């Protein structure tokens, strides 16, 4: 039953990360839409679309709380979440949709790299990304998302043998009957007739895994090719741009590198052993969902990277803070060379004395100083 505790931890982490995703991705969408002046056109729309996909991915994770369990030559992709009392079939379809959204996210990430590369080299094919034609590339990502979900649903659908293979394991680890758990089961080989007989691959499950790996490889080949080309061409091409646009291009490139490096090292690459392990028929019995638990951390981290790396977002935050947060007021007197900094706050002056507050803890303070050729002095005066 120890694996059930790991599932509970993964569920709590997913809930927390959903809240973080709503905050960070909403900030990205809002700032990109209304407060970033130099992020315009196609890439502006791409950022908004990608943030929306991140929200959708996190929402689906919250809805179904998917998990993996690996056992010898098999693994189960499942959920024991009740999901508002939905039927077994509906919950299984939701798991397939979640995996499809995952594929949509990594596919649209590849589209971003393609666009940045073509923009950098000023390729005429950049016109295929502009205006309403951007919908083609949204369709590209959705196509691979649909393909991924379809592979999982049709080629990983549980059958009598896969259920019998994993029945005892799932009951021992999650206290649940395999037939009541929605999800998909991968068993790599047919049962042997005897100990000396060869292993025969279950082609339905092999098709499922090979299809998923192929989609993953296609997207990463695009990312790697475009990323390397951007690096090789950046310094030469950047000479043609103004200092402002050169700095912005470099920031976007760093953001894209961070956005692909973080999930690649902690999320995407680890999933490959989970998918491929059944075909090595390793002796194991472990909650491999722990490896992919960090899926839920990806959407908020992605948006946070963008806002920290690209100065447009930092500048937008500064402007908004000046507009909505109380700011120190500076009053200058040129004739006496005196200044006052007034920091407004409540609970000051007599309130401190009446409430027996710490006399040095002034919430409303006037800092005054005179500066002349003979002396300098500064002091605190309670309001």
Can you put this structure into words, describing what you see?
This protein has 383 residues and is an alpha+beta fold. It has 2 domains: 2-321, Rhopdopsin 7-helix transmembrane proteins (Up-down Bundle); 327-382, no CATH class. The model is unreliable at 335-383 (pLDDT under 50). The strands form 2 sheets. Strands 3-2-1-4 form a 4-stranded antiparallel beta sheet, with helices on both faces. The chain has a 4-stranded antiparallel beta sheet with strand order 5-6-7-8, with no helix packed on it. It is built from 10 helices and 8 strands. It has helices at residues 2-34, 41-64, 88-120, 134-155, 160-174, 203-238, 243-276, 298-309, 311-324, 350-354, and strands at 67-71, 74-78, 183-187, 285-286, 329-333, 338-343, 365-371, 376-382. α1 packs antiparallel against α2 (41-64), α2 (41-64) packs antiparallel against α8 and α3 (88-120) packs parallel to α6.
């Amino acid at each position: 039953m120890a694996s059930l505790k790991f599932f509970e931890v993964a569920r709590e982490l997913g809930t927390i990360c959903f809240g973080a995703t709503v905050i960070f991705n909403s900030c990205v969408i809002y700032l990109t839409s209304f407060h970033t002046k130099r992020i315009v056109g196609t890439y502006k729309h791409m950022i908004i679309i990608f943030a929306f996909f991140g929200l959708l991915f996190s929402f689906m994770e919250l809805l179904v709380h998917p998990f993996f369990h690996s056992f010898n030559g098999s693994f189960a992709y499942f959920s024991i979440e009740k999901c508002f009392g939905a039927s077994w079939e509906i919950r299984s379809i939701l798991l397939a949709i979640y995996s499809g959204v995952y594929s949509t996210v990594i596919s649209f990430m590849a589209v971003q790299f393609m666009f940045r590369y073509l923009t950098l080299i000023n390729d005429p094919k950049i016109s295929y990304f502009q205006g309403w034609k951007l919908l083609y590339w949204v369709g590209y990502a959705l196509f691979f998302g649909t393909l991924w979900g379809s592979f999982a649903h049709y080629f990983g659908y549980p059958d009598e043998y896969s259920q019998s293979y994993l029945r005892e394991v799932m009951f021992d680890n999650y206290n649940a009957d395999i037939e009541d758990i929605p999800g998909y089961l991968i068993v790599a080989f047919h049962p042997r007739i005897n100990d000396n007989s060869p292993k025969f691959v279950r082609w339905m499950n092999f098709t499922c895994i090979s299809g998923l790996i192929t989609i993953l490889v296609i997207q990463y080949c695009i990312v790697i090719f475009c990323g390397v080309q951007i690096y090789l061409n950046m310094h030469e091409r950047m000479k043609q741009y103004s200092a402002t646009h050169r700095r912005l291009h470099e920031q976007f490139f760093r953001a894209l590198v961070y956005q692909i490096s973080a999930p690649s090292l902690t999320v995407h690459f680890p999933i490959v052993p989970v998918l491929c392990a059944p075909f090595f028929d390793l002796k194991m019995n472990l909650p491999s969902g722990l490896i992919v638990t960090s899926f839920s951390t990806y959407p908020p981290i992605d948006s946070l990277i963008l806002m920290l790396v690209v100065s447009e977002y930092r500048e937008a935050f500064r402007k908004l803070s000046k507009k909505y947060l109380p700011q120190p007021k500076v009053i200058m007197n040129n004739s006496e060379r005196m200044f006052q900094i007034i920091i407004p706050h409540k609970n000051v002056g007599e309130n401190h004395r009446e409430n027996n507050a710490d006399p040095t803890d002034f919430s409303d303070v006037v800092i005054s100083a005179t500066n002349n050729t003979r002396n300098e002095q500064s002091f605190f005066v309670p309001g």
